[in-house]
UniProtKB/TrEMBL annotation, chains A, B:
Entry protein name: TetR family transcriptional regulator
Keywords, comma-separated and alphabetical: DNA-binding, Transcription, Transcription regulation
Lineage of source species: Bacteria, Pseudomonadati, Pseudomonadota, Gammaproteobacteria, Alteromonadales
PANTHER family xref list: HTH-TYPE TRANSCRIPTIONAL REPRESSOR FABR
Superkingdom to which the source organism belongs: Bacteria
DNA-binding residue intervals: 33-52
Record-linked Pfam families: TetR_N
Molecular functions per Gene Ontology: DNA binding
Residue ranges occupied by any HTH tetR-type domain in the UniProt entry: 10-70
DNA sequence: CATTTTGGCTTACACTTGTAAGCCCAATAT
DNA sequence: ATATTGGGCTTACAAGTGTAAGCCAAAATG
């Protein structure tokens, strides 16, 4: 890669990083101004346009990057789970760790999910869809769940996890531990419930007998 | 009430209504400026301060009002459910109707829940807590669930419903119908799962036998 | 080597924003 | 009847915003 392209990539990164760094509990992406980001990245405001058409384009880049990063981390966590132990428990733990070390990556997904730009919402939804889809296949394979039930189950699980993540962002570590426990309970509910619905479908007879 | 107090209340309402009316999929409360709201309410920008200290105060008012309105509507719906039929199904239907007729009331809760102001997040959380608490008691009483399990169950249910609500805002009616169906399935999962966990606690023995 | 491209810069402009200061006059209080 | 209060207004200002126009030097191209 030429010297020029290298430099360009470098300041592009500086912009993305600058934006990520300015995110916090009090500062959402949509409240960031182009000038602020440029300032933090140490470039002139108008130079911003050499890299992104506008703030929207930068934001979408961040959503994509963030979602990807999150998924990679979660996948690593799942490998750890394969070594043994409760899948649910370990996944929740991984998630909480990821959250703690990359709060801003999670923040942009969380916030823009209910944000003001349709493009953003769609982008976040796509990322979440990835999570759901991966998990759905896992559930189908490992628990022999029917495809559509697996889908609903996975969706419910992901929603609950995301939601807990949002709550966790506002907490100190001690409370997060408790939150994690409650989350695990809720996830178990969904899993148990999905099993029950599956059985009911597979064999209405048997289920009727068992519930007596 | 004196003529003066009456007038004051009237323009105060005009401000709140103006703000609610400006909300949309593309426009969140935090993106509204004081001047815009004043303009829409037909008063001078600086007159705003005769009623609210700043936009934050107006916003919190809206959250409280909105949450209250939502709860009242849902309670009416629950009465309808008492006439018979699936509680879950009827509640979901009510919710979807409420959503359709008052999208902006729901929007402000949804958006500010993950918003940028701690005060807002807390206010929304308080409103949601009301929902959870009401539902939790209902579950405890009607299904004989233990208090802590009831709480987790209610929380999961409310989260799933809220989440579906957010998705519904972006949909046309036909798709909402499908969404509602899937939501019902998920809610049933939670209910079934909570039952299972309850049984396991009440009588680990029996449950072991049944699952064979 | 000569030319073109490009990523940075500076300057400039038109807007919007929040809010301070202070006037006015009708409703209230004395 | 007179004095006070208070909800509206106008004017004004400093600050910040997005972005257009155009210059410059160094890298890339031929």
């Amino acid at each position: 890669m030429g010297v020029r392209a290298q430099q360009k990539e470098k300041t592009r990164r500086a912009l993305v990083d600058a934006a990520f760094n300015q995110l916090s509990a009090e500062r959402s992406f949509s409240s960031l101004s182009l000038r602020e980001v440029a300032r933090e990245a140490n470039i002139a405001p108008t130079s911003f346009y050499r890299h992104f058409k506008d703030m929207n384009e930068l934001g979408l880049t961040m959503v994509d990057e963030g979602g990807l990063a999150l998924r990679q981390m979660m996948r690593k966590g799942r490998q750890r789970a394969e070594a043994g132990g409760s899948v649910i428990r370990i996944s929740v733990e991984t998630f909480m760790e990821v959250l703690e070390s990359n709060p801003n990556v999670f923040r942009i997904l969380l916030h823009e999910r209910s944000g003001t730009s349709a493009a953003f919402r769609a982008a976040v939804e796509r990322e979440i869809e990835h999570f759901i889809s991966e998990l759905s296949h896992y559930v189908e394979d490992s628990a022999g769940r029917s495809p559509d039930l697996a889908r609903e189950q996975a969706e419910a699980l992901v929603i609950l996890v995301f939601n807990a993540g949002a709550a966790a962002l506002d907490m100190k570590r001690s409370d997060r531990k408790l939150l994690a426990d409650r989350l695990v309970t809720q996830l178990r509910m969904v899993v148990k419930g999905a099993e029950a619905l599956q059985q009911k479908r597979d064999n209405p007879e048997l289920r009727a007998r068992l519930s007596r």
